[in-house]
Amino acid sequence: MIILLIVAVPALGALLAWFLKRQSMLLLVGVALLDAGLATAIAFGVETSRPLYLVQRYIVLDPTSQLFLMLINALFLGIATYVYARVWNTPQLRHRIERFVALSLIFIAAGNLAVLSNHLLAMWAFIVVTALSAVPLIQHGGNPKAVRASGRYMVFSSVGLALALLGFACLARSMELGPHEPTYFLDQIAATTSAEPEIWRRLGILLLFLGFGTKLGLAPMYAWLPETYDAAPPPVTALLASVQFNVVLVAVLRVLQAYQATNQSLVTFSLVGLGVSTMVVSSFGIIATRNYKRLIAYASLNHGGVIAVGLGIGRLATFGVLLYVVSNAIIKSILFLTAGKIRAQYKTEDMREVSGLIKDLPESGMFFLVGTFALLGFPPFGSFLGELIIMSALVSGEHFAVFVIFCAILMITFVATGRSVFPMVWGTSQRVMEIAPQPRGAVIPKLLFLVFLVAMGLYLPAPINLLFRQVASSLGTQ
Amino acid sequence: MTYLLIAYLLVVLVPMFVASWRTSLLGLAVQGLLLGWMAMELTVDPTLTPGRIALFAELVLVRGVFVPVWLYRVLNELKTPARNDIIPANLLFWTIVGVLVVVSFRFANGVFAEEQASTHLAVAAAALLLGLLVLASQDQPVSQLIGVLRIENAIALFELASEPHIPLPVQLGLVTIFVATVLTFGWYLRKVANAPAEWVEGPAL
After folding, report:
1. Is the CB of A172 less than 8 angstroms away from the CB of B165?
2. Cβ pair A93:B144 closer than 8 A
3. Of B147, B148, B180, the CB nearest to A132
């Protein structure tokens, strides 16, 4: 029952928000708080040494859903608190806020359902719902640039998800050729697959990676991501980059859980290929851009590439990938929410026009600086440990060529990001500005994210560590 | 069945050479109706199960009637200019269209020896590739929407070759989401058409 509440509460909240009008902001924070509490209780209070099935096996609770429910709901709480503080302190932002709240709650309800789904097509459908509810969220505020970006987002989402749907159809065709009844239930799929090379299964897996890869911003269909992340309001960008990214990643993990053991070479070939090509294009973007929101967006692309490479290698890298995924989600939330404050203060997104951030806006400067260090994979952050594990898995798996490309791209990214960001933070202040104080409510979530980010690199509490290990072992860690 | 597949291929091809959104919508409508017809032809067991009714309703009523009619009303209301290229009107793109169709048939011949299965796969693959070509070559919202719907129909055609095995609740959910996607696209078209020419930036979230 408690498991279903995590979906029912935001779904009911979305309905209520339309009636509460401006008071809906409180509802948003209340629901987010309740959901984060429920997700934590589910993660640590429900024993899942064997997966727990509900609602005629459509819902599954296992370590993967436990970890990602906790992650996305914690991030959603942080983003909701930030939005509440911004709207509370800026009355102009209250216009049509009930619509924003309702759509955000539909977004998280669908995200939770996708994470909990044991049926691949149902999971796909819930991911589409998150995409559909995100379209008006991207446009919130009515900026024509955001309207255009939402259109691009919608087209790419539709095509990516259509390719994933085609992938499912190919997998069904493959199952028809074997002795088993075709099924989309995750717990039954593994029994229907074999190690024999078979065109429909191989095509299906490739299309799934390509389709879901589009939603993760992997090359070749990544073009929507920098534009959308740049144009959308910062909390919406954080929702897309941190929450939706991880919901889609769960879908990829589910496919891997079902097919990786019998199709390792295909998985490695396709995911490493997508990952490395994404890292290459993102490094060009990082070098070329002069817009700090786009810079973070390209860095997100780069991180998506690292995650794809790690998942493709599998085995030892899996634990590192999970550490990296969680760190990455937190880093993106911190950076995009901070970018919103910088944009509001400097009225520009051009890095050359922002200088002396640490003096002008000490809190935002600190968050931006620390977030950038985490982004670049400095110790003591979890991203450092994650990258280190992935690189050691590349060497121990004798993927030397990938290792060399991986290191070269990380170095290019490191230099290009530092070259752009450090003058922004430490440069001389160029303007005399009236500094608007930052509401506590907007700072606290970022501070908590930061604490967790550092903690992940230094010490993982035993229950969280166990959850990571369980998810890694479900992906075939040796 | 083969004549229906050839008809489908023609309905996919003809609007690519006619630069009009009305022709494109008509093409989508005929695609939906042909999909419904093919679903009937492929039905071995004539019993009308709820799943089968949902499938016919989706193909004929949603894809064949609702989507084109609703989009026609939106585009008409927005006074969209009659001319609308879905691929650039030049010899290069017309050649690419031809090449994609040939490649699809070659691919299908390699996969299936049986003629009908091969033609089915070839037409679905050609429809999918041509939908992707529309998306790759156009950046106008109307053309992109048509490209996306062409891809959706191509996938529906591909799925017809398999035995239906999706549980009814999931099938209904998928239809609802397809309708919601089209409605969101329509809403987006209105939003783009009514976007202010000048934008005064205020505080943002």
Report:
1. yes
2. no
3. B180
Q: What is the ipTM of this complex?
A: 0.93
Residue B63, domain member (yes or no): yes
List the domain range (segments joined by +) for residue B28. Answer: 2-191
Say how many domains are in chain B. 1
**Averaged pLDDT, B53-77:** 95
DSSP H helices, A217-291, are 224-231, 234-238, 245-259, 264-288
Mean pLDDT by 10 residues, chain A (478 residues): 91 93 91 96 89 93 96 96 91 90 97 96 96 95 90 95 94 84 86 76 94 94 94 95 97 92 88 96 94 94 95 90 94 93 88 90 91 88 91 94 95 92 87 75 90 86 92 80
How many CB atoms are located within 10 Å of the residue A77 CB?
Answer: 23
Nearest to A125 among B162, B174, B202 (CB): B174
Beta bridge partners of A54: A59
d(CA B99, CA B96): 5
Q: Is residue B196 in some structural domain?
A: no
Inter-chain Cβ pairs, chain A and chain B, closer than 8 A: 108
* Contact call for A86 and B205, based on CB within 8 A: yes
One-letter amino acid at B141 equals P
The answer to whether the CB of A112 falls within 8 A of the CB of A72 is: yes
Residue A91 · residue A22 · CB < 8 Å = no
Backbone angles phi, psi at B83, to 5 degrees: -75, 130
Say which DSSP state A93 is in: G
Which residue from B165, B167, B177 is facing A129, i.e. has the nearest CB? B177
List B83's β-bridge partners, or say none.
B20
d(CA A243, CA A73): 8
Residues of B in contact with A234 (CB under 8 A): 204-205
Whether residue B202 is contained in a domain is answered as no
Whether B198 is covered by a domain: the verdict is no
Q: What is the predicted pLDDT for the residue at A296?
A: 94
